Amino acid sequence: MNITIIGASDMFARSFADWAIEAGHHITFVGFSTAQAEEMVAKMGSGKPVGPEAPINDDIVFLAIPYVCLQPVLQTYPGQIVDKVVVDLITPIDLNTLELVQPVAGSASHEILGTWPKTKVVKAISSKFSPMFLKQSSANKEMDEVFLASDNKEAKEIISEFFRQGGLRPIDAGLLDQANDLEKLGYRDTMSAGARANK
């Protein structure tokens, strides 16, 4: 499958991109500059690098960025992201304090939908894609779970099948109103992984 990942940061996109490439997907990496995307592709050994000026052609777009970058990304593509499935992988963490942020809109997913109302937003949270798990074994069965929330049933099923084909276990977490609870879950797992990594 051809997908776009907005996010060319080692820390925030690497775990998901590693999995997606291994699962056989073809990725276009969008960076804040073409050079950043090219660096990511060089590290991954696969993918097509583009900058923010390039049009987004794929029907499925993953956001794998720090929360602080969400609004700049949303404003970069004011009219391009239409009728696409947008998968929100973001856990809203303050990078200075490492505390969980409570988005005014309710969740990062609701912020996305507020700016890109003509998209089909799916919240996806999995320990497997936490940056803290980059060097940890994928043998842990809990890491095979991907929790999904969306108001669009068809989009949720498309993304469920996307993950299922790559060997993961999608779990229906309900409507997009559950996105904030999933962000709390993602934060808990990230912090727990970080604590274990530092031992």
Task: Provide a compact summary of the structure.
The chain has helices at 10-22, 34-44, 70-76, 108-115, 153-165, 179-197, and strands at residues 2-6, 26-30, 48-50, 60-63, 85-88, 120-125, 145-149, 169-172.
Give a topology summary.
Blueprint: E1 2-6, H1 10-22, E2 26-30, H2 34-44, E3 48-50, E4 60-63, H3 70-76, E5 85-88, H4 108-115, E6 120-125, E7 145-149, H5 153-165, E8 169-172, H6 179-197
Parallel strand pairs: 1-2, 1-4, 2-3, 4-5, 5-6, 7-8
Antiparallel strand pairs: 6-7
Helix pairs in contact: 3-4
Explain what you see.
The protein has helices at residues 10-22, 34-44, 70-76, 108-115, 153-165, 179-197; strands at residues 2-6, 26-30, 48-50, 60-63, 85-88, 120-125, 145-149, 169-172. It has an 8-stranded mixed β-sheet, with helices on both faces. It has 199 residues and is an alpha/beta fold. It is 36% helix and 18% strand. The relative contact order is 0.14. The chain is globular.
Average pLDDT, to the nearest integer? 89
Gyration radius from CA atoms, angstroms: 15 Å
- Which spans of ≥5 residues are poorly predicted at pLDDT below 50? 134-141
Query: Any idea what the shape is?
Result: globular
Q: In the residues, how many domains can be counted?
A: 1
Total helices: the number is 6
Fold-level CATH name: Rossmann fold
Provide the helix percentage.
Answer: 25-40%
Structural class: alpha/beta
Count of DSSP strands: 8
Sequence of secondary-structure elements: EHEHEEHEHEEHEH
Q: Strand sequence of the main sheet, in spatial order? A: 3-2-1-4-5-6-7-8
- Termini separation comes to 38 Å
What oligomeric arrangement do these chains adopt? Answer: single chain
